[in-house]
Design goal:
alpha/beta; Molybdopterin biosynthesis moea protein, domain 2; Molybdopterin biosynthesis moeA protein, domain 3; binds adenosine monophosphate; binds magnesium ion
Length: 422
Amino acid sequence: MAAPSTGSVLSFEEARAVVEKHASHIVATDHESCSLLSAAGRILAEPILADRDLPPFPRATRDGYAVRAADLKSLPSKLRVIGEIKAGPVGPIPPLNSGETISIMTGAPAPPGADAVVMIEYTSRHNDSVEISKGVSSGENIVPRGAEAKLGSVLVDRGTRLNETAIALAASVGKAKVEVFARPRVAVLSTGDEVVDIDSRPGPTQIRNSNSYSLAVQIERAGGIPELLPIAPDEPKRLHGLVEQGLKSDLLIMTGGVSMGRYDLVEQVLSEMHAEFFFTGAKIQPGRPVVFGRIPHHERSRAGVPAPHRHQYFFGLPGNPISTVVTFELFAKPMVESLSGSSPQPLVFLHAKLKSDIRVKSGLKRFLPAILSGEHETSQVELVPWQGSGDLAAQARANCYVVVPPDREHIPAGEWVAVMPR
Ligand code: AMP
Ligand code: MG
């Protein structure tokens, strides 16, 4: 059996840094036009610019009376009401002189001469005059023209994942369509003689392919288009053929066949294809045998790879279903994000108080399925009892992972621990 050309077992942090380094060199290029309502989750390929000053006029932020703050030096103060301005008025807005006020609504333009708005709660109206019981400082309850953004300034950067706020900003400058990066195609190749399609009836010792389906969800969430390949048997020739096929996509993710077993052929087949291995394991659980590398490339991929060194990146994720999910999240996701045109997103960790003791062997950083409950300072977390990294049913009950550092063998109940949400 051919040994991998290079590669090694790295700590979690080292392995993550290797992936992030490679991901950060990817330059996505292909883009397409997308209607704003379908753009949620897509990555902007153009900056969204302010098409005018925002706000375009000095905007009242309260219902009340537009005033000159200096008129309210002594209180209560009586001002003459010369009119009313509602949001979206047409025609010229009358200027405000000393001793005068104008009734104004939220979202309406403040009249020239006014420098503040007194909230209606502090006023009482008597026909053409209003008595004001509370002073204001200059600028209060008015957002000056251009204070949020100047004409031509960047509202949302290229490379931003479009969320509801970014989409609202695009809408506010009239972008019915936005340029977004093309989604990368991510090939998914499950391997294993025992693994069968979900629409076939498994024999007594066969199992249905679930990994391709969890990966498809994770790939879509990370911005990619999953392309499920046929299941590869533990047979080098057929595996080779399917790997070749997978390398036509922008990224290849394999599951299974990366452990130390006699029929774990993924590394062997990749070595024969002159793969370069960046790591062949990470000191984590679940997911220790995770593999990351690249292969000299034949054909340019759609999402773009850095010239002049063209190569295809691949991951070999362990076949145990939870290992597959966890290693995608920790290592493959940044690659999909970069190919999608975004920068790799940092992992997010919360903190919670452990409900019951954890005892493990030291040496591996562990991401153990757990249930997080409570909020803020009452956050509590408890491991889900599981039968190991094949126990999808346990994982389904969990809503997070407790992160156990590699140097800890015992974490007592009551200690604050790092939690990675899922
Ligand atoms: P392997 O990484 O090939 O040694 O597989 C580890 C475990 O994961 C074995 O119990 C496999 O049967 C299981 N497994 C491998 N591939 C899949 C898959 N696509 N779906 C569900 N389970 C799998
Ligand atoms: Mg296998």
